[in-house]
# Entry
Amino acid sequence: MSKIQEMLDRIGETKVIAIVRGVAAEHALDMIKALRDGGIEAIEVTMNTPAALEIIEAAQQIGGIIVGAGTVLDVANAQAVIEHGAQFVLAPSLDVEVISTCLQHDVLPVPGVFSPTELYQAHRSGAPLIKVFPASSVGPQYIKDLLGPFNGLKLLPVGGVSLENAADFIAHGAYAIGVGSYLANPTLAKEGAWSTLTERAQAFVSAANNN
# Structure
């Protein structure tokens, strides 16, 4: 099995990617452990987070999770995160060169799209999982609408995914969901509220898996 397929399967197991953005480096690993304890298996560290590369590298020592990089906007960023061990690479935008770079290194690319044309281009470029962003602007129905003509593609809505609509996104065909500050909350991390983060993770995993 390729590493790309392995990452795709792992993301599909719990259906939730926790997006770590703007969390202080000294709190990041403890927060990631708390989310893992709540059932999260996929963590995305965004490149606009201070010390992102160091967090990505250190987080790989935490058992039971896979670690990806987010807000990867160009090939240079993609190469940097891959060198630091990122197992999947997400972007808010579509760059076919970033997709190609990831595929060459057997790293899962997750480009960001919004329109049907962008979605098809991402698919044609070889992306096995495609991020729909910002999902808050269109809601779960848009995922179902896209999957009409593009049946079988794996879509990841990000932006505005909440505990209230997580199950709806999955029910409308999303392969998984990406969740930001409600899960990977910088304030709660600063306060050391690890049990609260674990409880939130459990709630999201349960909602996404209809438990």
About this structure: The chain has a mean pLDDT of 97. The longest strand covers residues 16-20. The chain has ten helices and nine strands.
